Amino acid sequence: MKKKIERIGVITSGGDCSGLNAAIRACTCSAIRRGWKVYGIHNGINGLIVRPMEYEQLTLASFEFPFATLGGTMLGTNNSNVLSYDSGKREKISEQEVVARFTEGVQKLKLDALIVIGGDGSMTIIANLCKRAHIAMIGIPKTIDNDAPGTDLSIGFSTAREVVMDAMDKLDTTAASHHRVMLVEVMGRTTGHLALQSAITGFADAVLIPEIPYSYDALVKHLRAAQKIGRGHALVVISEGIKKPDGNYAIANDGATYFGVSSATYYGVSQYFQERLKKDGFEVRTNILGHIQRSGTPVAADRLLASAFGVHAIDLLAKGKTNRVVVHAKGEVSDISLKESISLGTTPVNPRGEIVKVAQSLGIYVGEVDQCKKRK
Ligand code: F6P
After folding, report:
1. Exposure on the CB side of residue 351, measured as CA atoms within 13 A
2. Ligand 1 close to Cβ of residue 346 (< 6 A)
């Protein structure tokens, strides 16, 4: 017989984003209604690993402060590249030590299950730890990259898209005034969902994403053709994870590989395009939007998604279902197994999908779709 749930832990892990507080709140409200105790673990799993442990009991009063309008996470978070550090002392500890301390932490707090609000990297690492510590886990996907496995939406994406669109609206007027090419570098790591959807909503002329190879010459031809028909400026969205015109990546930080998950980050590829475009006679400016994409008041779509995901996670535990990941698919909130989620890996943009077609039909240069392999 499955163990009756009495005490759960909630963790936010990986890069922060807007909507995390709404998810923590939803889990807490829903669990407390069932008479369970809820513990918010601080700074991702670090709260269970450092000694003394760092956590707080969450009650309805924990949400008295107006968190609704804030981005970030009230619990704090960590990225996989700092998982191996005892946070206060910044001492590197081994994977083996992490497992031992995590297991001890879970036992000390007498947790029956852990809700992990994280991206695919965190989900993989913490699933591994939960398995070794014999604790049930439910995953809730969050990432501005919107590439979490098995879900068409992740917490944080809608707000990030809004932030980029707003930035592009502002850049459009200054670009138009000066007749310039404005490069807008957007986050997304190895996937281009944020860049592609921002290019459509921000009325861009071109978008370059990791999933579709581009031709630099074709991009230039596209910009010149626009100039010829009277468009005096251009907005070009560049996903941070594309290759530079010389074929290499602009890696900001190789990152550590921990429990098999790499934490490499990208930064600054757009500057290489600025150099090339200048040589080709364009007046160009570069804007690397950076971490503002992970922040800002969560939009309604993120609050709704986070609330629905949190409630669904608690419902799963109440039904005795464990080791599942909540997803949004075909317009519904549902769930898939943790195993399936991990095996799927990140979800790339489909180069022949509807959203790419919309961009192409709007006249946006999206790269050389013909060079992409057809999906089975
Ligand atoms: O995965 C979310 C994300 O914001 C990526 O889009 C970006 O490449 C990365 O995290 C940045 O990570 P960090 O906050 O560690 O610089």
Report:
1. 19
2. no
Confidence band (pLDDT; 50, 70, 90) for 91? low
Question: What's the residue count for the chain?
Answer: 376
265 or 75: which leads in pLDDT: 75
- Centre of ligand 1 to C-alpha 21, Å, is 19
Residue 233 contacts residue 180 (beta carbons within 8 Å): yes
Is 188's C-beta closer than 6 angstroms to any atom of ligand 1?
Answer: yes
The single-letter DSSP state of residue 375 is P
Mean pLDDT within 237-253: 92
Q: Of 11, 83, 141, which Cα lies nearest the Cα of 261?
A: 83
* pLDDT for residue 256 is more than 70: no
Domain 7-154+298-344 matching CATH 3.40.50.450: the answer reads yes
Please state which architecture CATH assigns to domain 160-294+350-371.
Answer: 3-Layer(aba) Sandwich (3.40)
* 233 Cβ inside 6 Å of ligand 1: no
14 alpha carbon – ligand 1 mean position (Å): 8
194 CA closest ligand 1 atom index: 6
Catalytic residue among 112, 120, 145, 172: 145
Angle between helices 95-108 and 120-133 (to 10 degrees): 70
Nearest 5°: phi and psi at 353?
-85, 175
The CA 16 to ligand 1 mean position distance, Å, reads: 9
- What is the distance between the alpha carbons of residues 95 and 136, in angstroms, rounded to a whole number? 20
User: Does the fold of domain 160-294+350-371 match that of domain 7-154+298-344?
Assistant: yes
Whether the CB of 79 sits within 6 Å of ligand 1: yes
User: Angle at Cα 126 formed by Cα 122 and Cα 128, nearest 5°?
Assistant: 125
Is 169 part of the annotated catalytic residue set? Answer: no
What is the percent of the chain with per-residue pLDDT over 90, rounded to a whole number?
Answer: 83
Q: What are 140's strand-pairing partners?
A: 117
Ligand 1: nearest atom to the Cα of 79:
15
The mean per-residue pLDDT over the stretch 105-116 comes to 98
Residue boundaries of the structural domains of the chain: 7-154+298-344, 160-294+350-371
